[in-house]
Automatic annotation (TrEMBL):
GO cellular component labels: Golgi apparatus; membrane
Residues of the signal peptide: 1-27
Lineage: Eukaryota, Viridiplantae, Streptophyta, Embryophyta, Tracheophyta
Entry superkingdom: Eukaryota
Organism annotation: Cicer arietinum
Gene name tied to this protein: LOC101491454
Major site of localization recorded for this protein: membrane
Name this protein carries in UniProt: Protein trichome birefringence-like 38
Keywords from the named record: Membrane, Signal, Signal-anchor, Transmembrane, Transmembrane helix
Length: 354
């Protein structure tokens, strides 16, 4: 979800004083001290959403909630408000102007696709007449804004590390990351993974796991997740020139399939939820995978950013498609567009622009 500024006279001063904190959070330096953009709460703002999803040509059926029958619209009206400052409003034209000739890539599973589509809609709403070319398909889709020579790319990978087909079957290689040769040529990298690490049965995209010379049929999934993230961290340390490329690792995108998360019967899910969970992001417990991710991120020795959207998104039980998608299945994993990913992209915008 995008962000509306109310104290316009103060905003320009805030933005001009903004700095990137090379730590597990992104902060703005203001005249009242350091402000963590991930700590805050959701407020109703009737000026929202920042764009009309029906005019955006980039939304897939999985995320287009209004098109597929969602009637309530209050979920579109919530603005993320950090505790000690305001979040700069996403300005697509400013982004395209500053990043002229550059490339930004979202790398990960369908949650990355979800965020990429939000990013594309935010840009389209800013420059609706811009000439674009879209190329590719699985695993790479590249949309180039020709008037600015800016490429906004999504790279689909379920695990970041490699899955290779060998004689024994599909092998998940926890210490191999071959696609990195392409990734490191980008100017901004936004990584995400978790959704596929706990998959079993027919939906599991591998048959064996390999680490070093050892091949096993299965192992503790959280341990495998940790080892893969350490491989990613080592790759950043050895392969990425962070003086030229900004690197982000996204926190775990929370799901809302169990009402116990918000003190309702466990059989309750995100269907028919119309308001966020009350309180602030600081009151939210984190999933175990987030602690594993944060621990692995600490092994990155170069400047990089933990894109820590987990707690603020955990409040948004109302932000999922539920059955309002092209497949009409219950989806409490992904997010409506327009919706919560617009706020993720507003925080990303604040970071990469300052």
């Amino acid at each position: 979800m995008g962000v509306e500024m109310k104290l316009h006279g103060w905003i320009s001063m805030v933005i001009s004083m903004a700095i990137i904190c090379l730590s597990p959070c992104f902060c703005l330096e203001t005249n009242v001290g350091s402000c963590n953009l991930y700590e805050g709460s959701w407020l109703l703002d009737q000026s929202y959403p920042l764009y009309d999803s029906s005019t955006c040509p980039h939304i897939r059926m999985e995320f287009n909630c209004l098109k597929y029958g969602r009637v309530d619209k209050e979920y579109l009206k919530y603005r993320w408000q950090p505790s000690n400052c305001n979040l700069p409003r996403f300005d697509g034209k400013s982004f395209l102007t500053k990043y002229r000739g550059k490339k930004i890539m979202f790398i990960g599973d369908s949650v990355s696709l979800n965020q990429w589509q939000s990013f594309m809609c935010l840009l389209h709403s800013s420059v609706p007449e811009a000439r674009i070319i879209e190329k590719g398909g699985e695993p790479i889709t590249n949309v180039t804004f020709l008037d600015y020579d800016v490429s906004v790319i999504v790279f689909h990978t379920t695990h970041l590390v490699d899955i290779e087909v060998e004689k024994i079957g599909r092998v998940l290689k926890l210490d191999s990351l071959k696609h990195g040769e392409l990734w490191k040529t980008m100017d901004v990298l936004v990584f995400n993974t978790w959704l596929w690490w706990y998959r079993t049965g027919p939906k599991q995209p591998w048959d064996y796991i390999q680490i070093g010379n050892k091949i096993v049929k299965d192992m503790d999934r959280m341990e495998a997740f940790d080892l893969a993230l350490i491989t990613w961290a080592n790759w950043v340390n050895t392969e990425v020139d962070t003086t030229k490329t900004k690197v982000f690792l996204q926190g775990i995108s929370p799901q809302h399939y169990h009402g116990a998360q918000w003190h309702e019967p466990a059989v309750t899910n995100c269907a028919n939820e119309k308001t966020p969970i009350g309180g602030s992001s600081s009151s939210q417990g984190l999933p175990k995978a987030q602690y594993v991710l944060e621990s692995a991120f600490q092994k990155v020795t170069k400047p990089a950013h933990l894109f820590n959207i987990t707690a603020l998104s955990a409040l948004r039980k109302d932000g999922h498609p539920s059955s309002h998608n092209g497949f009409h299945g219950m989806d409490c994993t992904h997010w409506c567009v327009a919706g919560v990913p617009d706020t993720w992209n507003s925080i990303l915008y604040a970071s990469i622009m300052n």
